[in-house]
Specification:
The chain has 201 residues and is an alpha+beta fold. Helices cover 45% and strands 17% of the residues. Helix 6 packs across helix 9 (188-197). The longest helix is centred in the middle third of the chain and has 17 residues, at 118-134. The protein is elongated.
Length: 201
């Protein structure tokens, strides 16, 4: 079994899912929340995150586990309450980059009818790992490209950037074009926002 698209994920996790990619100090670079809206509102209103045994497992482990296999206190009965919103069976997936500055990506997936089987667990674990790697910051941006993007982020216009750097507008355009290509960005502003999110600026 291979999971390649959000539609594939939805077909396995019929009750909903949440994926956070490349969580930095506090926020993910990207998140996808397909959990039932009433559950999201209930969870947020009651401040479950800090007491959620699934979140505690995710931040203390790597790999994948069924919610039913998480042996952690649940004083607020988060998992019991999730069942009343159709999230009866669940899976937690956690991936962490190697190294001291590693970023974590994770997902939790839910069904209402049965436990996730081993094949589905492997497929969803592989999917989170693949999406984590796809969101890796590029390593081939040059210092000159990053410098120009930093000036774009600061709201400077092309003519101003060229003047400050002591180069032609054409040279600045080429740096920004190269950066956009490496990042897969449509505009210079989007490219600047992406490198900021990656922590490269």
């Amino acid at each position: 079994m291979k999971v390649n698209t959000p539609e594939d994920v939805s077909s396995i996790a019929g009750a909903g899912y949440y994926i956070a990619l490349r969580v930095g100090f506090a926020f993910p670079l990207e998140e996808v929340n397909k959990l039932p809206e009433p559950w999201v509102e209930h969870y947020t209103k009651l401040g479950f995150m800090l007491q959620d045994p699934v979140i505690r497992w995710i931040y203390g482990n790597t790999g994948a586990t069924r919610w039913s296999e998480i042996d952690a206190p649940d004083p607020l009965r988060v998992l019991d309450q999730a069942q009343t919103f159709g999230l009866r069976y669940g899976l937690a997936v956690s991936y962490l980059d190697a190294g001291s500055n590693g970023q974590r990506s994770f997902g939790h997936f839910a069904r209402s009818d049965r436990e996730f089987n081993d094949e589905e667990i492997v497929a969803l674990n592989d999917y989170v790992t693949m999406r984590h790697r796809q969101k890796a910051p590029p390593t081939n941006l040059t210092a000159a490209e990053l410098e120009a993007l930093g000036m774009v982020k600061d709201g400077m216009r092309l003519k101003q950037i060229a003047h400050v750097l002591g180069v032609s507008e054409g040279a600045v355009k080429q740096r920004l074009k190269n950066a956009k290509s490496k990042l897969g960005a449509q505009t210079s502003a989007q490219a600047a926002a992406m490198v900021k999110e990656f922590g490269l600026l």
